[in-house]
Design brief:
Length: 387
């Protein structure tokens, strides 16, 4: 049985449009994994411990009609084929089989399934994930994240702002929002993260931004794992136009999980030598770990003239263009922060607000959403097999 799974894995490993999502050692385990993983195709050996392939195929056909089962057997007699079809299998593979036979069978079963399902040829639009990141505190990362979120909402977009600075997040205080519910309340029970549970812990701010706030105390931060963030994204990405993350100035497994999933990483720097030094180290680190540098957009915040170097020097020194520049207007920014208000709403005519609203216009104007006319399901087919 182990040898069969190894051979099948070897045959399929180099197939770009087929992804193995699970392996089962017996029929009972196969049924449990199907319930969890919801694969498109299941390869099932006819002789399996605990629950044999025919019985398992029958149970799958009843409980998971969208999962297509292929039975494998060393017995090639017509009677076995008939029994497999009666149990609900969609095809029958006689062992030993070639790589081409295996691939053709999977593709044919899958293609027959989707043939009469035109709804599978399009996907719901998914949110653009914008991640504000900086290599040091004090550069205005949270202020930019809050105000861009408010700016996008003012343009009719639905926005979820997630405070991923788990130990010392400032989104709540920046918006004068009591943190009655936080991301910690979502994960503390250890139960599966569902859309319903996420919605219970999202706070709807008066500005129109939906908020998922950081824990109230640093001690709670360790309870939130990278897989929690990914599960949250998976559940809500079709409900929003933009999901914005406010990140801490660190690169750990949690931050990398979000960064990898991001559409755009808004890397914030100021014209301070320490900020520029850290930003340069950050870009080198991203390069060293083969992060997609095309996703990184440099934001120059708190720009003021006559400090010894400017935007052109920044671009030359970091070898990356500046995506957007936000001028220094300390009085407006500080007053808005102290009042718990977004300056793009309170002082929309100010230069600092216009720069953020201009960024929002740019994002709205360049958002294309997912491909249409060709389903992502055709690019990758999930497969589970048991033997």
């Amino acid at each position: 049985m182990d040898e069969l799974r190894s051979n099948v894995r070897r045959m399929l490993n180099n197939q770009d449009n087929i992804r193995i999502v699970g392996e089962a050692r017996n029929g009972r385990e196969a049924l449990e994994l199907v319930k969890e993983l919801q694969p498109h195709v299941v390869l099932m050996d006819i002789n399996m411990p605990e629950i044999d392939g025919l019985k398992a195929a029958e149970m799958l056909a009843k409980d998971f009609p969208n999962v297509q089962t292929v039975i494998m057997s060393i017995q090639g007699e017509q009677e076995y084929f008939r029994r497999a079809m009666k149990a609900g299998a969609k095809d029958f593979l006689i062992k030993p089989f070639s790589t081409n036979d295996l691939i053709d069978t999977i593709q044919n079963v899958f293609n027959k399934w989707v043939k009469d399902r035109p709804e599978l040829f399009s996907e719901e639009p998914r949110a653009d994930i914008l991640t504000f990141f900086a290599t040091k505190g004090g550069v205005g990362r949270t202020t930019l994240a809050v105000n861009l979120a408010a700016g996008l909402v003012s343009k009719g977009k639905k926005v979820l702002l997630i405070d991923a600075s788990l130990q010392f997040g400032d989104v709540a205080i920046t918006l004068n929002q009591p943190a009655k519910r936080t991301i910690y309340h979502l994960v503390e029970s250890g139960e599966e993260i569902t859309l319903g549970e996420i919605e219970k812990n999202i706070i709807k701010h008066e500005s129109g931004i939906d908020l998922l706030l950081a824990p109230k105390e640093p001690a709670f931060a360790e309870a939130v794992k990278s897989e929690h963030f990914l599960k949250i994204i998976e559940n809500v990405e079709t409900l929003y136009n933009f999901i914005i993350f406010d990140m801490p100035p660190s690169i750990t497994e949690k931050e990398l999980a979000i960064l990898d999933r991001s559409t755009m990483v808004l890397l914030v720097a100021t014209l301070e030598i320490s900020s520029l030094k850290n930003t340069k180290i950050c870009l080198k680190t991203f390069s060293d770990i083969n992060f997609d540098l095309s996703k990184i957009k440099l934001i120059l915040n708190k720009e003021i003239p006559n400090v010894g170097f400017g935007k052109e020097d920044l671009e030359s020194g970091l070898a990356i263009p500046v995506y957007a520049t936000v001028p220094m207007e300390a009085e407006i920014a500080q007053r808005s922060l102290n009042h718990g208000e977004a300056f793009v709403l309170k002082s929309p005519a100010s230069a600092i607000a216009r720069s953020i609203l201009g960024m929002a216009d740019r994002l709205v104007g360049t958002t294309t959403g997912p491909e249409t006319g060709k389903s992502a399901i055709f690019k990758i087919k999930d497969l589970l097999f048991g033997s």
